[in-house]
Amino acid sequence: YPTAERELAILLARQPEVSRILAEEVVRFIQRLRQADLTKVPGIAETLDWAAALSALGARRLESGLVDDTLGVLLKYQEDISAMKGAGARTLLAEIRAS
Questions:
Q1: Among candidates 24, 30, 28, 29, which has minimal Cα distance to 12?
Q2: CA distances (Å), 51 to each of 4, 19, 29, 37, 94, in order?
Q3: How far apart are CA 57 and CA 38, in angstroms?
Q4: For residue 51, what pLDDT is reported?
Q5: Rounded Cα gap, residues 10 and 26, in angstroms
Q6: How high is the pLDDT of residue 99?
Q7: pLDDT value at position 33?
Q8: Are 62 and 34 within 8 A, CB to CB?
Q9: What is the pLDDT of residues 10-22, one digit of tens each?
Q10: Which of 5, 8, 22, 88 has the fewest C-beta atoms under 10 angstroms from its C-beta?
Q11: 74: Cβ–Cβ under 8 A, 6 or more apart, which residues?
Q12: Alpha-carbon distance 34 to 30, whole Å?
């Protein structure tokens, strides 16, 4: 997987309509999510898809409810979605905001 800096550069180049704040939060969230015990961690394609979906929904920043509602774009297995939905997503969101 690319470094966070490289992934952010790819995201901003491919989807300039995504706000920089949202793009940075998406990349930090996904970079952290890749460390979780999941069946399949998201790749760069999922980063791009998720950022596009969030942007289309009018997101300017990641919010826990919006993360829960869009996890199906990011994660491919129901077990992974269930594991991350709710407290899992809120914990990751708090971690990326604290860093």
A1: 24
A2: 14, 10, 11, 22, 19
A3: 26
A4: 97
A5: 12
A6: 80
A7: 95
A8: no
A9: 999 999 999 999 9
A10: 5
A11: 30, 33, 42, 46, 49, 50
A12: 6
Token pair, residue 86, equals: 């709710």
Alpha helices in the chain (DSSP H): 4-14, 20-33, 44-56, 64-74, 78-84, 87-98
pTM comes to 0.93
CA distance 8 to 26: 9
As a whole number of angstroms, the distance between CA 18 and CA 14 comes to: 9
Amino acid at 84: M
pLDDT beneath 70: ranges in the chain: none
DSSP 92: H
Q: Is the distance from CB of 83 to CB of 38 less than 8 angstroms?
A: yes
